[in-house]
Write a structure and sequence with these properties.
The complex is a heterotrimer of chains A (277), B (493) and C (315).
Chain A (H helix, E strand, L loop, with lengths): L1 H6 L3 H22 L32 H37 L1 H16 L2 H12 L3 H28 L2 H8 L4 H12 L1 H24 L11 H10 L6 H28 L8
Helix pairs in contact in A: 2-3, 2-11, 3-4, 3-6, 3-8, 3-9, 3-11, 4-6, 5-6, 6-8, 6-9, 7-8, 9-10, 9-11, 10-11
Chain B lengths: L1 H6 L1 H12 L6 E6 L14 H7 L8 E3 L5 E3 L2 E6 L5 E6 L13 H9 L17 E8 L2 E6 L6 H4 L26 E7 L3 E6 L12 E6 L3 H10 L4 E2 L8 H5 L4 E16 L9 H10 L2 H9 L4 E2 L22 H10 L7 E6 L3 H16 L3 E6 L2 H10 L5 E6 L20 H12 L4 H17 L2 E14 L2 E2 L16 E2 L2
Parallel strand pairs in B: 1-10, 14-15, 14-16
Antiparallel strand pairs in B: 2-3, 4-5, 5-7, 6-7, 8-9, 9-10, 11-17, 12-16, 12-17, 13-17, 18-19
Helix pairs in contact in B: 8-10, 9-11, 13-14
Chain C lengths: L1 H27 L5 H6 L5 H10 L6 H13 L13 H36 L4 H15 L2 H15 L15 H35 L2 H8 L4 H39 L4 H10 L3 H29 L2 H5 L1
The chains are: A mainly alpha (277), B alpha+beta (493), C mainly alpha (315).
């Protein structure tokens, strides 16, 4: 009870939660309503600046930028969310396993982490898409791969510190198996840390997706995506700066919201880490 | 913004004047979009190679002039036999390669035989296919015998792929090109620029420019900024259609919209259902509004075409009305073809803007008549592999920039998978006919046949959008081949 | 210490070896034939086959791998398919752009971030602290390529002060080249500076909370003196670690920024090389970037060990 109340007095958390909620609701709304259709082109009305009819103006095909941003949020959220799920789904069990077993398993995991971290993320994404071709799914794979060692490391670290705690030692003494202890005692006690890490990776995922689709490796047209909108805007920046402004603001707002949310969660749930990062 | 502007005005002025002052009268900085992979035109297809070396560094027996006509180059004259099968070339004397070695009939024989060997990596081996043998009559005359008469032979010998190289330097031309031209390579900073300087020992009329720098600027926004700032004084093929209007309004610049040999088409896989049905192909043709495509993808630059023939050619027929935009008719044709509700298909798009943007517009237009085309962007490597070689595609957009390439629709294994006996017969006749009313008549028949059959959807002719400093003269207005011939370029005052 | 060090070096080498196998294997399955790409649409099958032979594609897989690996060890990275010059020369040429770019942005971000971080920590909770950290929070959320676009709009399009892209080339003088690097390095530096400022602040606050600082304060040392003579020195250790990591991150970050500004650096080289299927260049650049990351991590690890001897025994 104390936790929830302090969450709601935490400024970072509140601002972050509101922004994130707005983004999520907008994305949801885009499934049932957008101001204009994003698939209908209207070349005659291209590159129009902001106006009462088009709040954020129109793009080079005469599409409404506000509608494009609303629909584009889906690609960002989808890619980031699924790649977090991949990272957590594979990384956490790996980390827990390494912490429980130690020895060679642990050593192998650490070396795997070293290996993945040694590759500049964007470079690997480029190579992956060179094989499978560009697309949202391949962006997910590329980002997801980098989430695996992140979650594995966090889970391992947290689990290691829990394995030496009294209640775990006690469970061990009464003959519980490593697997059982992990499920019953370790995992529930590190949920906070994992949620915080999930939020951070989610916001990094939004940035990564934007970067990949900006260089043409993310969701493909006609599916709108924020990074692609910025790519299209680049050549028209002298003619239509509004094309570059609004999708960028959407990215910043989303990432900022998630970061604040993560900071707030950390402050409240994990006071030890208060001023890190 | 105005406050910003005035605050920084002083600094801006200083910077601008420092960049504007370096345009001396005998050197020129040109912008090019693509960096050539290497500089040997006889060992690669990239147009970017010819854009640097053609007529500047390397010369052939003949050359193509600014209007697309065949002019003498290293051959000062030639004679054709009665049966049209042999050509005797008389070569210029006292010609030296840039490394000092002399040019003579041996080099011609070498250059014409090399592409025909098995080991050759010449990308246009077809140009030499007609040659039966090459004989040296004396150091300055060469006799070429063809297997059968070929109306295009002199034209073929003018291609960049047919330039004359010396046996001594042929293997190192990729990195150190050695030709007979009025310029020679000075320096190539990979990824940034290529500098050529005047060849003092040139055999013909010397160039006016002492030095020309080709700066590689692939980004349209950067190209615009570089021209405005004077970092680059000429962009023979300007990549940013969206900013051309801005230059047209600026007296410092000349904007020259010329023609190219680039027919931009949406190729269809003619053997793959439903595209094997001519009605489906015609339905697609009527569903696409070329004007919208040109306005949307090219910002209005480009000439609509109704068949596969360049509009500036004398034998051109305007057939665009035959496949005019008519969604109702398109729907009707689609219903007659047995697809009243349309169908799902794919559209593979290579990297150029005309393809990517044009493809988005076309996909949206096709969905109006029920055809859902999934867009698949591909890189050139994948396009060549999947579409061009393995014909693993439904629809694709590409510009066919080679001159004189009507015959691609007669090739058996070409990616359109189009197989038409009457068309093949027409091409055979065209190739055996020299220029004249007969050939024009045959060309027009071929155009009509394609416009009816629609093996591909004919969209528009790529424009050559040149922008340069208004004090520059002598750059080509049109692009009969992809080259930047600098021999006649000069600054005026 | 020695065994610890040699173990870390060994691990680094194994990582590099594994990376070389991965890079080679991945590029082996990339679709697209470099020979066909170079010869284009009108090339005959004969010509394509001849070029494939020239490029050595018909040797067995393992032979090619070991040839490549053996070459790497002797400093021979092979010859670019497209440019037909040694890959190492290309890399050196491109390094002349990427390295100054990464360095400048590292310097810019350090110059901005460390003072801001110290200032914010020393006035914890003040309005300036809140404002500085608020800006840093936003800075972290800004994608560097979008920031680059905004910079281009302001400085290249509106003010026409700096080039929107392209690189003048060092041979054309120092100032024009620096001019073409200003906007890219600013774009790269901002998000890094935001992260660094936050790390500096929190690390300093942690140290300020430690016992010995309290003791120093209790002994009557001024707040300022404690901050600069005692706390800062210790707080900078994590900051330096982050800096080390950021350098390799920046080298990789140049990939995207070089593509925004069309700078002929390593990032653009690797992008171009992938689209042109110049795989030998891709292999060379990737393995070199990986090596840089591994070496920097190794140095950071060893540096830590020097500072914190407990690590020796743990290994």
């Amino acid at each position: 009870m104390k936790r929830t109340s302090s969450l709601f007095t935490n400024r970072s958390f509140l601002i972050g939660a509101v922004i994130t909620l707005i983004v999520a609701l907008t994305a949801g709304l885009s499934f049932i309503w957008t101001p204009y259709s994003v698939s209908a082109l209207d070349i005659v009305a291209k590159l129009k600046p902001s106006s009462p009819a088009h709040w954020m103006g129109t793009d080079h095909f005469g599409r409404d930028i506000l509608s494009m941003i609303m629909v584009g949020s889906r690609a960002s959220i989808f890619v980031a969310l699924v790649s977090v799920a991949i990272g957590a789904g594979i990384g956490i069990p790996l980390g827990l396993w390494a912490a429980a077993r130690g020895g060679i398993v642990d050593e192998m995991l650490m070396r795997f982490n070293d290996l993945v971290f040694a590759f500049p993320a964007l470079l690997s994404a480029v190579m992956i898409t060179a094989i499978f071709g560009p697309g949202a799914i391949n962006a997910i794979i590329a980002i997801g791969i980098f989430n695996i060692p992140v979650f594995a490391r966090v889970a391992r670290g947290a689990a290691l510190s829990l394995w030496v705690r009294e209640f775990v030692l006690a469970a061990r003494a009464i003959g519980k198996s490593e697997g059982r202890i992990t499920l019953d005692h370790i995992l529930p006690n590190m949920a906070n840390i994992l949620i915080i890490q999930g939020t951070i990776q989610f916001s990094l995922g939004i940035l990564a997706e934007a970067g990949l689709s900006y260089v043409g490796l993310g969701a493909q047209p006609p599916t709108p995506s924020w990074g692609r909108m910025l790519f299209e805007a680049q050549t028209m920046i002298g003619l239509a700066p509004h094309m570059a402004l609004f999708p960028g603001l959407a990215i910043v707002a989303t990432v900022l919201g998630l970061n604040l949310l993560g900071d707030g969660l950390r402050d409240v749930l994990d006071p030890k880490l208060r001023h890190m990062r | 913004m105005n406050i910003w502007k005035s605050c920084l005005f002083g600094a801006a002025l200083a910077l601008l004047t420092s960049t504007a002052s370096f345009a001396a009268k005998t050197d020129l900085v040109l912008g090019i979009v693509l960096e050539p992979p290497h500089l040997d035109p006889t060992a690669g297809a990239a147009a970017a190679i010819d854009e640097i070396v053609y007529a500047n560094i390397f010369e052939g027996l003949t050359r193509i002039g600014p209007k697309g006509d065949v002019l003498p180059a290293l051959a000062e004259s030639w004679a054709q036999s009665e049966d049209g099968k042999t050509y005797t070339f008389k070569l210029h004397k006292d010609v030296k390669f840039q490394d000092g070695t002399a040019f003579d009939a041996e080099d011609v024989k070498f250059s014409l035989e090399r592409p025909r060997s098995d080991k050759s990596t010449n990308a246009q081996k077809g140009l030499f296919a007609a040659i039966d043998k090459v004989e040296i009559l004396d150091p300055l005359s060469v006799k070429v015998t063809l297997k059968q008469p070929n109306g295009d032979f002199l034209y073929n010998m003018a291609w960049g792929d047919a330039v004359i190289v010396a046996p001594e330097s042929a293997d190192t031309n990729k990195d150190k090109p050695v030709g007979t031209g009025p310029f020679k390579l000075d320096n190539w900073a990979k990824g940034s620029q290529i500098v050529i300087t005047k060849n003092p020992n040139y055999w013909g009329t010397p160039a006016t420019l002492e030095k020309a720098t080709f700066r590689i600027i692939p980004d349209p926004a950067a190209a615009t900024a570089a021209l405005l700032a004077g970092d680059v004084q000429a962009f023979p093929v300007f990549p940013s259609y969206e900013t051309i209007a801005q230059f047209q309004a600026d007296p410092r610049f000349k904007v020259v919209i010329g023609s190219t040999e680039g027919e931009t088409v949406m190729g269809l896989n003619n053997k793959k259902p439903p595209f094997d049905n001519p009605k489906v192909r015609q339905a697609i043709a009527h569903a696409i509004d070329r004007k919208t495509v040109i306005d949307g993808a090219m910002f209005g630059f480009g000439t609509p075409i109704g068949s596969f023939f360049p509009p500036h050619h004398a034998a051109y027929l305007d057939l665009t009305t035959q496949t005019a935009y008519d969604p109702e008719l398109a729907k009707k044709l689609l219903t007659e073809a047995g697809h009243p509700d349309g169908f799902k298909t794919t559209l593979k798009l290579p990297p150029p803007t005309y393809a990517r943007r044009g493809g988005e517009i076309i996909a949206a237009e096709l969905s109006e008549i029920g055809i859902e085309a999934e867009i698949i962007p591909v890189e050139w490597a994948q396009w060549l592999d999947q579409v061009f070689k393995n014909k693993d595609y439904d629809m694709t957009i590409v510009s066919h920039t080679e001159p004189n390439d009507l015959n691609i629709f007669s090739r058996d294994d070409y990616y359109f998978n189009y197989d038409s006996a009457p068309f093949k017969e027409l091409i055979k006749q065209i190739e055996a006919t020299s220029d004249g009313p007969k050939r024009t008549e045959l060309y027009q028949q071929a155009q009509k046949l394609l416009a009816t059959d629609e093996p591909a959807i004919f969209l528009f002719q790529l424009p050559k959008t040149g922008i340069w400093d208004s004090k520059i003269e002598g750059l080509w207005e049109n692009g009969p081949i992809q080259a930047n011939d600098l021999t006649a370029v000069k600054w005026t005052d | 210490m020695l065994t610890y060090a040699s173990k870390r070096v060994l691990i680094g080498l194994v990582t590099l070896l594994a990376a070389s196998i991965i890079v080679f294997a991945v590029l082996e399955v990339v679709p697209g034939d470099p020979a066909r790409l170079m010869l284009g649409m009108n090339a005959t099958e004969d010509a394509v086959r001849a070029l494939q032979e020239q490029m050595g594609f018909n040797q067995p897989l393992l032979t090619r791998y070991f040839n490549w690996l053996g070459g790497l060890l002797t400093g021979d990275f092979g010859k670019s398919y497209t440019y037909s010059v040694p890959v190492l020369d290309l890399i050196k040429e491109r390094m002349a752009v990427s390295l100054p770019l990464a360095m400048t942005s590292l310097v810019i971000s350090t110059i901005i971030a460390i003072p801001v971080g110290i200032f914010a920590a020393s006035r914890r909770g003040s309005a300036t602290d809140t404002a500085a950290m608020g800006i840093a929070q936003i800075g972290v959320a800004i994608p560097n390529f979008w920031f680059a676009l905004l910079l281009v709009y302001l400085f290249a399009i509106v003010l026409r002060l700096l080039p929107a892209g392209g690189f003048a080339g060092w041979e054309n003088g120092f100032w024009p080249s620096i001019k073409s690097l200003i906007l890219p390095s600013l774009a790269l530096a901002l998000p890094q500076a935001s992260i660094l400022a936050r790390v500096t602040r929190s690390s300093l606050l942690d140290v300020l909370g430690e016992d010995y600082i309290r003791t120093a304060r209790a002994k009557g040392l001024s707040r300022r003196k404690v901050l600069y003579y005692h706390a800062l020195r210790n707080a900078l250790i994590p900051v330096l670690t982050i800096l080390g990591m950021q350098f390799s991150f920046l080298l990789a970050g140049t990939i995207i920024i070089e593509n925004v500004f069309y700078l002929p650096g390593l990032g653009r080289l690797v992008f171009q090389a992938i689209t042109q299927r110049d795989l030998i260049v891709v292999q060379g650049v990737v393995i070199m970037l990986v090596a840089i990351v591994v070496i920097i991590n190794l140095l950071v690890d060893l540096g830590y060990a020097v500072v914190d001897p407990r690590l020796w025994s743990r290994s």
